[in-house]
Design goal:
Elements: E1 2-4, E2 8-9, E3 38-46, E4 58-64, E5 71-78, E6 84-90, E7 100-108, E8 111-120, E9 123-127, H1 128-133, H2 139-142, E10 145-148, E11 152-156, E12 159-160
Parallel strand pairs: 2-9, 3-11, 3-12
Antiparallel strand pairs: 1-10, 3-6, 4-5, 4-7, 7-8, 8-9, 10-11
């Protein structure tokens, strides 16, 4: 089953829980177990035009640990020469009444942005804040795409950042 997240969700200041004090450790696979419900997020980071992929962009990410109200899953990575990234994690918990969310901080040189990806069993969604700051991406790159199987959720999530 594949779906595209064309819904814009309003967001508030959800980044107050940002857990990083020393984000220098590179970790792209933050799974704590090999079996069970998992999520794999991949995508590309583009420049401000939304057309040119950027290499060596630092992406930090964090989310609630499974069956927990605490942020225990976090990692960071650098994009490859084609601006690609991939992260693997246990399926996150969610706050009561909200979508499952993974937070991202993307930085390159002196530019930085913070955004989030929200998803459920029915699709992946961007927030209104993400839509406003990434409109330079073409629609096929702007909206996340979700594939779901019994134990694995795969989401393609692209980001743009001004140089």
């Amino acid at each position: 089953m594949a779906s595209t997240g064309a819904v814009l969700l309003h967001t508030t200041d959800l980044f107050a829980k940002e857990p990083f004090s020393s984000p220098s450790i590179s970790k792209t696979d933050i799974r704590t177990k090999l079996f069970g419900k998992q999520v794999e997020i991949s995508g590309r980071v583009f420049d401000g035009s939304g057309k040119n992929p950027l290499q060596n962009v630092k992406i930090e990410f964090w989310h609630l640990s499974p069956n927990s109200e605490k942020i225990g899953h976090k990692g960071s990575l650098l994009t490859d020469t084609q601006g690609r990234y991939i992260l693997k994690s246990d399926y996150p918990s969610k706050e009561m009444g909200k979508h499952t969310t993974i937070h991202f901080r993307v930085s390159r040189e002196n530019k930085e942005l913070v955004t989030e990806l929200k998803f459920s069993d029915f699709g992946a969604y961007i927030t209104d804040k993400h839509w406003e700051s990434h409109q330079n991406l073409e629609d096929n790159l702007l909206f996340p795409q979700l594939e779901k199987s019994l134990y694995k959720t795969k989401i393609n999530f692209n980001i743009s950042i001004n140089q």
